Amino acid sequence: QVQLVESGGGVVQSGRSLRLSCAASGFTFSFYGMHWVRQAPGKGLEWVAVIWYDGGIKYYADSVKGRFTISRDNSKNTLYLQMNSLRAEDTAVYYCARWGGSDIVEKLDYWGQGTLVAVSS
Amino acid sequence: DIQMTQSPSPLSASVGDRVTITCQASQDIGNHLNWYQQKPGKAPKLLIYDASNLEVGVPSRFSGSGSGTYFTFTISSLQPDDIATYYCQQYNNVRRTFGPGTTVDFK
Looking at the predicted structure, is the pLDDT value of residue B96 above 80? Predict the structure, then answer.
């Protein structure tokens, strides 16, 4: 069965860096685009970034552009989110999600359990 | 970026009620809209994709409709397990965006 397991979260000081990982199993990882979505405590969902199946195309939310980098290693079935220059407002649970559907129909059909990032000032 | 709004929030209803949530986009997104359910402490779950398509395994009491800028999500007969927050999400723009969410609870 499809599984996505995030790791790498924790408490970090403002201005520092952190790298999140999302280990995928149960499907052919290299066939699917992937997303990161975050949720600040008590708040709604915020889309963060997307990467195409081959890593060739990436897009970011304005709130993280220039500070966060999404990447993937298809040989390791793993998605990453490198987060630099962290701010208090980056505090959130970070979810990875699979881009199901097709080239024209995009649905986030499987999600990980999330990993908490807490940025302290 | 495309802004998404949802109403009402919150929404209070009784078991068996028909519940409808609306989602509006700041510009035409065709039918590039999904609906998710999230329960406290859990990851979101996909319910409806491409505005009106029911995801496999999702009960048929859930439905979606709309296109362009106006969309609706309906629970035909509210069940206790449906108490959750519901989000719409557009994927017409390269920067995807979610609505603010609608929390559904019991009266």
Answer: yes
